[in-house]
Amino acid sequence: MSDEPGANRSEPARPRGAAGASGRPAAVDARELTVERGGRPVLHGITLTVTPGTVTGLLGPSGCGKTTLLRSVVGTQARVHGRLSVLGRPAGDPGLRSRIGYVTQEPSVHRDLTVRQNLDHYAAVLGVGRRRRAADVARVLDDVDLRDRAGALTADLSGGQRSRASLAVALLGEPELLVLDEPTVGLDPVLRRDLWRLFHRLAAGRGTTLLVSSHVMDEADRCDRLLLMRDGRILADDTPDGLRRATGAATVEDAFLRLVETPPARGGSR
Ligand SMILES: Nc1ncnc2c1ncn2[C@@H]1O[C@H](COP(=O)(O)OP(=O)(O)OP(=O)(O)O)[C@@H](O)[C@H]1O
Hints:
Layout: E1 28-37, E2 40-50, E3 55-59, H1 66-74, E4 80-86, E5 89-90, E6 100-103, H2 115-125, H3 130-143, H4 159-171, E7 177-181, H5 189-206, E8 209-214, E9 225-230, E10 233-238, H6 240-247, H7 252-261
Parallel strand pairs: 3-8, 3-9, 6-7, 7-8
Antiparallel strand pairs: 1-2, 1-4, 4-5, 9-10
Helix pairs in contact: 2-3, 3-4, 6-7
Adenosine-5'-triphosphate binds next to α1.
């Protein structure tokens, strides 16, 4: 059976009043989400809410199911069961395509085009008129700090620069929800810091919701909210401070270990 788009049987979640302070519906609302890949379950009844206008980190070890969850949110994952609504619509709804930006772990730019040509091409695909296109391309080049490499072939960029070029493509349509799969892997500390600043600028300035995965726990404090994940389950959905308070741990990494080692309370969500 295919693991690719087209076989998504998720249903929209019922509206649950999970809106943020803005009154907008939850950016993501998942209820009892289950996904099978390669004939075995990899997500086990996940329930979570992503508040609009926040930077939410999806943190967990390699192989725990982060990419599978992100693919479910953007509608490219097959065999999704349960209820999943994104920006108030069922996941995978064609009307969501222009409202979501998705950056996978594999850079999605054409290597034989320059950065600017890539952006111009994708802006045209998005239907941005010729006159607005130059301004949009300049804006996203600034966002990801690639203006001075705009004329370079993407084949000639470093890995980190190519990732940022992919992020620039995702920013073109000013999406309401940005889904980023491990965007900071391989970046030096300065670039990582700059990217997290950009994420918060997008959330604070444009009201964009960012769902950002990472397997590095030290990125936790850069997030407004955290979804801690392990073995296809959500261990915690909290702020970094709330998580430390709830577990009595000094760091999010220790909080994660305590959650793994402590059996869930009766009636708890784990
Ligand atoms: N195409 C596939 N077919 C079958 N099983 C898959 C496929 N892709 C991933 N899996 C399995 O699904 C589980 C979750 O994988 P997923 O890629 O979602 O994890 P992840 O947390 O994103 O990992 P990483 O941090 O390494 O990217 C893993 O056990 C993985 O082996």
